[in-house]
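Researcher: Good morning. I'm working through a list of sequences from a screen, and I'd like to move beyond sequence-only analysis. For each chain I'm collecting a predicted structure so we can compare shapes side by side. This is the next one on the list. No need for commentary yet; just the structure.
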Amino acid sequence: MNRDGNQSKAVATGASPDRVGHDSAAADPARGAHSASNPRLLDADELERRLAAFAAARDWERFHSPKNLAMALSVEAAELVEIFQWSTEAESRAIMQTGHAEHVGQELADIAMYLVRIASVLGVDLNEAIAKKLALNAQKYPAP
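Model: Good morning. C-alpha cells for this chain:
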C-alpha cells in the first residue's frame, strides 16, 4: 500500500534483517516452542520482521489495516489467476516452462508477503493455524 492508499507491489524489503538467525519461537515463549508434536511448518519470522520494517520505514502501518491487507491479498491472488485465464489444463501445468514463469513467481511472492503481513497485523500464528487446519482437513477428508 503506498502513501496514497493504493496497493503497491513493493511490499518486501531489501533492508538487512535486524536479527539475522534469530529464532523468535525460542526467544518469545508466547509464540510457542516447536517440537515433533508441534512442528514448524512455515518459517516466516524473518519475512514478518522485514515486512514490518519496510512498512514502518515508509510510514505505511496506517494503511495496513486487516481490511486493506485482505483486499490486497485478494487482488494479488486474482493477478495469479489472470495468468492462467483461458489456459487449458495442460498449458497450466506447463506454465513454468514458458515466458510466464517469472510473473508467476512474482505473484506468488506478493501473495505470500500479504499473507504473512495480515497474519502479523492480526496476531495470527500461521504455524499454529496451519497445523490446526491440516488436522481439521484430515478429519473432514480421511484418506481411503
